């Protein structure tokens, strides 16, 4: 390929053409392709590369932990109702309907891994996803409000089809934090999906939003169009810690006979 042609392809933003030209030309000659078939193969290569680049951008922007995938999720440990719903959730219909997804359970039950695995599957299907610990996002919103840029920050978050708020019960729970979190939930209501993990059941959400009316309003907005998952069973982390202990030993390495 001539330097001039390479420059033209770059200017036209056709890197797939430039990258696969030689390989496909050799294949076309060997297989006896006509010009139209060769051009189609180049166009397919271009689309494949664009799809891969977009996927890489979406994954970077998501901030999702890449190790928490569907493949590494111990689905056999999930409650049967959750296991049955998982394939449908990964297809993303709830995102297209701007519904929310709520995962409740005590610490160590796999809530974060579950929603991250779903988030990664949604990205594969072209949805934009952003994962954040709730406390970190609240601090971002507080800083934006202090700088008179809250609307701009909310607009930036609005670019994501799905916003995953991990551990909503772990914010510091003062009134300023409650206000910006409520503003975010109200802004996305019936427009964009929110995925929430929580150790606190709804009856305990007054710890987050303080005021009973605000608590009720927040729950109403989240639950109105929502899928609710309850993760029960033993703690993954407790079982993993127990498995690392010497056989017959206590946490301190003794035989546990005290």
Brief overview, please?
With 258 residues, the protein is α/β, with parallel strands linked by helices. 56% of the residues lie in helices and 10% in strands. The protein contains twelve helices and five strands.
Rg (CA only): 24 Å
- The total number of structural domains is 2
CATH architecture classification name of the largest domain: 3-Layer(aba) Sandwich
**Average pLDDT number:** 87
Textual characterization of the structure:
The chain has 258 residues and is α/β, with parallel strands linked by helices. The protein is built from twelve helices and five strands. The chain has two domains: 59 residues, no CATH class; 176 residues, Rossmann fold (3-Layer(aba) Sandwich). Strands 2-3-4-1-5 form a five-stranded parallel sheet. α9 links the parallel β3 and β4. The protein is globular and about 70 Å long. 26% of the residues are buried. The mean pLDDT is 87.
Ordered list of secondary-structure elements with their pairings:
Blueprint: H1 3-11, H2 15-31, H3 35-62, H4 80-91, H5 93-96, E1 100-104, H6 111-124, E2 129-133, H7 134-146, H8 150-157, E3 162-166, H9 175-188, E4 193-198, H10 206-209, H11 212-223, E5 226-230, H12 236-244
Parallel strand pairs: 1-4, 1-5, 2-3, 3-4
């Amino acid at each position: 390929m001539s330097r001039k042609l390479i420059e033209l392809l770059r200017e036209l933003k056709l890197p797939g053409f430039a990258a696969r030209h030689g390989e496909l030309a050799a294949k076309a000659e060997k297989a006896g392709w006509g010009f139209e078939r060769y051009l189609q193969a180049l166009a397919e290569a271009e689309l494949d590369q664009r799809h891969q680049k977009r996927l890489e951008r979406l994954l970077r922007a998501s901030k999702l932990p890449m190790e928490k995938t569907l493949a590494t999720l111990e689905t056999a440990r999930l409650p049967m109702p959750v296991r049955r719903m998982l394939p449908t959730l990964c297809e993303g219909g709830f995102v297209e309907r701007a519904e929310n997804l709520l995962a409740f359970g005590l610490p160590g039950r796999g809530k974060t891994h579950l929603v991250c695995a779903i988030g990664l599957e949604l990205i594969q299907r072209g949805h934009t996803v952003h994962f954040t610990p709730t406390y970190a996002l609240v601090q971002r919103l507080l800083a934006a409000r202090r700088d008179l840029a809250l609307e701009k920050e909310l607009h930036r978050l609005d670019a994501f089809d799905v916003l995953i708020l991990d551990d909503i019960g772990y914010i510091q729970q003062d009134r300023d934090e409650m206000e910006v979190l409520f503003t975010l939930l109200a802004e996305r209501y019936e427009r964009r999906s929110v995925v929430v993990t929580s150790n606190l059941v709804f009856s305990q959400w007054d710890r987050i939003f303080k005021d009973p009316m605000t608590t009720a309003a927040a729950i109403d907005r989240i639950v109105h169009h929502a899928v609710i998952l309850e993760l029960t069973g033993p703690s993954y982390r407790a079982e993993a810690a127990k498995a690392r202990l010497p056989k017959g030993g206590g946490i301190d390495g003794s035989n546990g006979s005290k």
